[in-house]
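Appendix B. Raw example, untouched.
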Amino acid sequence: MFGDTTSYYPLLSNVPVDAPIGILSDQELFKISVHIGSNWQSLARELRMTPAEIRRIERMHLPDEHGFAMLLDWRYKCVKLIRVHDSVTALANALETFGRQDLSFHVLMKYQNDQFCA
């Protein structure tokens, strides 16, 4: 199915970036995907995914995998383009706009705890 890869390569770079841990790990994104359920397309739009990206996810994955696949695609793009802090903030803001303040709070608190314990 899916799994953390060991590294990613940022755009325009041949220097690998470690796979995300903490709130942006596969495990945490899977938990979020379970809570967003079939409304994943609305969250995808809040995360500024294009209609073409959404259609590709629908074509390439089973319906019960759509939300998780969307979050993985979003994370992959974010890790290449922006800092982890900004990615976490974008996810929390999108979840709040999406109407899931509870998940937004969870994301921020998990990230804060991960930073504090690191």
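End of appendix B.
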